[in-house]
Amino acid sequence: MPFDWMSPKRNEAFVKTIAGRFDQMLRLEVEQRARLLMNLGFARDAVVKRLQDRMKWDFETSKVPPLFKEVTSIVDRVFRREHR
Questions:
Q1: Is 64 a domain residue?
Q2: Which domain holds residue 57?
Q3: What is the DSSP string of 6-44?
Q4: In sequence order, which residues have a C-beta less than 8 Å from that of residue 66 and are 6 or more positions away?
Q5: Is residue 68 part of a domain?
Q6: DSSP assignment, residue 66?
Q7: Neighbour tally for 33: CB within 10 Å
Q8: pLDDT band at residue 1, thresholds of 50, 70 and 90?
Q9: How many domains does the chain contain in total?
Q10: How do residues 42-72 score in pLDDT, each as one tens digit?
Q11: 33-36: long-range contacts at Cβ-Cβ below 8 A with a sequence spacing of 24 or more?
Q12: Residue 23, CB half-sphere, CA atoms under 13 Å: how many?
């Protein structure tokens, strides 16, 4: 008979509270990196390529997250906000 502590138990209420946090964290990181690269003088197209390459590298051993397709729109939003 196995010990009780040998089988993991998940708190489903906690799992529900953290469900979207990974995507939220990735989105914020892409936005902050885009702003940093823009402030360093990189062109918009270079920022998009650099961030997409970085995301491919970060997830080279797993599946690239769906946020990969949103990188261009996030960069556009950052560039529009700063160049008003």
A1: yes
A2: 13-82
A3: GS----HHHHHHTTTHHHHHHHHHHHHHHHHHHHTT--H
A4: 23
A5: yes
A6: G
A7: 19
A8: low
A9: 1
A10: 999 999 999 999 999 999 999 999 999 999 9
A11: 34/74, 34/75, 34/78, 34/79, 35/78, 35/82
A12: 8
The predicted model scores a pTM of 0.77
Cβ proximity of 67 and 26 under 8 Å: yes
**Is 48 within the bounds of a domain?**
yes
User: With the C-alpha atoms ordered 70, 71, 72, 78, is the resulting torsion angle positive or negative?
Assistant: positive
In a domain? residue 1: no
Give pLDDT tens digits for 12-31. Answer: 888 888 888 989 999 999 99
CA-to-CA dists, residue 82 to 16, 17, 78, 79, angstroms = 35, 33, 6, 5
Rg (CA), the chain: 18
- Per-residue tokens: 39: 């402030």
Q: Which residue's structure tokens are 């360093």?
A: 40
